[in-house]
């Protein structure tokens, strides 16, 4: 385990830059984010997964390893409305194709952050980060609970339920999580919202059915259906002890999120996902957030990075039951 620490870099606080306003109580994120330390007061810890080896293995567009820095730069000038602190927890870097080592390092890093009582937000990076996120959360929970029930909510155009026995990639993390749950004898409670039928084979839909995944396709996200979708998500959250939220930026239309590994031909509008995000934010059960597939080399006017930053701002507004 000690060897994997060489893949971890400390916080680069020079990224946190922006305008400084003269009015009282007009701070922005760049003025409030601090470098994370082991004795930091409980708050939000932003950490990066600078890896897209899984995307390359999945034959997607490379470049998402630069996502964490792009998201930080987009978040830095946003207005500060939080009560609790926020920290930069540094980045995990993937060396060449050593994705598994990067995932293990991130898992160890996240477990320590969770053990200290913080809410981690992982910036990516390819969606192989989901297995790293789960590794950290499951290790943290296993030390404290016999059989925790985690609602895994994935906003994504893809199931990411491919068979990892062929190759582990950005397309396999939730199958790997299902296998880990089976080994631990934990229930696997997975919801994938925004699925594109055109981007997922029949075999993947069949696997999702076998695993009893809560599936809502992109075309279902219409005004008249949002209440019912939110109700289904709320039922899942109510039946679980904890919530892990994973957001793949390719769930949004390509016009809103062009800088991703696989742009969506349709996608789901932010306005249709906001009720779901608000439900999770106010649940009091949100333990971990990750944002995947931001690819700055294909972004336009920083649209994707800005949208990711907006999501972080929205999800970390203070609310009853979620002091972080």
Summarize the structure in short.
Helices cover 33% and strands 17% of the residues.
Residues in helix, %:
25-40%
Q: Please work out how many helical segments DSSP would assign.
A: 10
Mean of all residue-level pLDDT scores:
94
Largest sheet: 10 strands, mixed
Structural class: alpha/beta
Q: Which residues sit in consecutive blocks of at least 5 with pLDDT less than 50?
A: 1-5
Instruction: State the oligomer.
Output: single chain
Number of β-strand runs: 10
Shape descriptor reads globular
H/E element string? EHEEHHEHEHEHEHEHEHEH
Distance between the termini: 29 Å
- Radius of gyration computed on alpha carbons: 18 Å
Strand composition percent: 15-25%
Any descriptors?
324 residues
What do you see in this structure?
The protein has 324 residues and is of the alpha/beta class. 33% of the residues lie in helices and 17% in strands. The chain has ten helices and ten strands. Strands 1, 2, 3, 4, 5, 6, 7, 8, 9 and 10 form a ten-stranded mixed β-sheet that branches. β6 (150-155), α6 and β7 (189-195) form a beta-alpha-beta unit. α3 (67-75) crosses α10 (303-315) and α5 runs parallel beside α6 (173-184). The longest helix is centred in the N-terminal third of the chain and has 17 residues, at 99-115. The radius of gyration is 18 Å and the shape is globular. The relative contact order is 0.17.
